[in-house]
Amino acid sequence: MAGADDTGNLTFEQAMGELENLVARMESGKLPLDELIANYERGNRLAAFCRSKLETLERRIELLTADDGGGGRWTEFDGETPAGGRHGAAATAAEPSASPLDTESGADNELPF
User: Fold this and answer.
1) Could you tell me if residue 7 is inside a domain?
2) Is residue 35 in some structural domain?
């Protein structure tokens, strides 16, 4: 069983993998009580480690996005938005000319091809 202070050497992914294994062993119902308690304690340390890593990453993301013109607000990713479109560059583009199929503009209704 791993010691109490060894989570510092783990990556987030390693800690999550170990936590998943601990939970699976504990849910099997085949562990002696002492080992179950030791696994529970280790699981609590791993969960706290993972939670701390996630909170740190969340703060880093907030800092990285704080100066994006959005005041540090979380925004949804839009894969359809062209580069620069998030800050209004696409919205300020020139108005497109009337469509060749636009009947209101008085344009000829012939297709361009």
Assistant:
1) no
2) yes
Q: Which domain holds residue 55?
A: 12-72
Range 74-100 burial, b when 16+ CB lie within 10 A, else e = eeeeeeeeeeeebeeeeeeeeeeeeee
In a domain, 88, yes or no: no
End-to-end CA distance of the chain: give it in Å, rounded. 74
Q: Whole-prediction pTM value?
A: 0.54
Give the pair of three-digit tokens for residue 72.
Answer: 């540090």
CA dihedral over 24, 29, 33, 35, signed as positive or negative: negative
Residues 6+ apart with CB under 8 A from 110: 100
What is the residue type of 27?
Answer: E
Across the chain, which has 113 residues, the per-10-residue mean pLDDT values are: 68 96 94 95 96 92 71 63 48 48 54 54
Which residue is it, tokens 């540090």? 72
Tokens matching residue 60: 């880093």
